[in-house]
Amino acid sequence: MSLFSPELPQQHVCKEEEMLHFCETCGKGFSTRTNLFIHKTIHTGEKPYSCEICGKDFRTSYESLVHMRTHTGERPYTCNTCGKKFSTNSDLSKHTRIHTGEKPYSCTICGEKFSFRPTLKIHLSTHTGEEPYVCETCGKGLKSSKGLLIHMRTHTGEKPYLCNTCGKRFNNKSALTRHTRTHTGEKPYSCETCGKRFSENSVLKRHTRIHTGERPYPCNICGKRFYRTTHLKQHIRVHSGEKQSLFYLPELGSC
């Protein structure tokens, strides 16, 4: 269709006319009275839908329905790739990015891409240095509320994640996941250069430095660079006069 088609102005008018209901508080327009009613609860704080089991209140019937699934255990959305089930379609959509590798969220500073918005938000703090979540016990700053929750368990000693194989407990789910691979032998992270496989992504990243020659850890005294922080710490003892470990072999470039 031509940009100068007489049909275009008519389409534009239709879109304008669809917005028949407007919020008196902020002026936002909606195509239906129902959508306007739901929107207004943002301003009023009204939550007319209550859970019959726990009494929690919600703004919409859909939110109430999704919440009920936490009680019933219903998970009607299934991943076609791995069979994992989810309580909402949005959770399923986010999960499928693990299989597809889709990374729709980009860092505006360095361009690195991420599959999930919260991961991008945490990454941005590496540029800004922001640590807005502070531990009330020791004052340590954390980049995310989840990080603060996990950190608090170092004070409380809570370890809610249990290994079903050996009974060992962990204070966060990712630590349990890494641990279970010691039993299963699973190594899901593969080096694109040599094909070597690893059980942890962080170990893979260290390994790739053998191929790229990257040495991201510099000595502030002499400028020499190292593959790993442990090698840097060992090297600093050269300047401080401390005795080095016999196992320090940085020139090998081990990962």
UniProtKB/TrEMBL annotation:
Keyword Ion transport attached: no
BP-aspect Gene Ontology terms: negative regulation of transcription by RNA polymerase II
Stretch forming the signal peptide: none
Alphabetical keyword list: DNA-binding, Metal-binding, Nucleus, Repeat, Transcription, Transcription regulation, Zinc, Zinc-finger
Annotated C2H2-type domain residues: 21-48, 49-76, 77-104, 105-132, 133-160, 161-188, 189-216, 217-244
Annotated protein name in UniProt: C2H2-type domain-containing protein
One annotated GO molecular function: RNA polymerase II cis-regulatory region sequence-specific DNA binding
Stated family: Belongs to the krueppel C2H2-type zinc-finger protein family.
Gene Ontology annotations for the cellular component aspect, listed alphabetically: nucleus
Organism: Seriola lalandi dorsalis
Localization, UniProt: Nucleus
Lineage summary: Eukaryota, Metazoa, Chordata, Craniata, Vertebrata
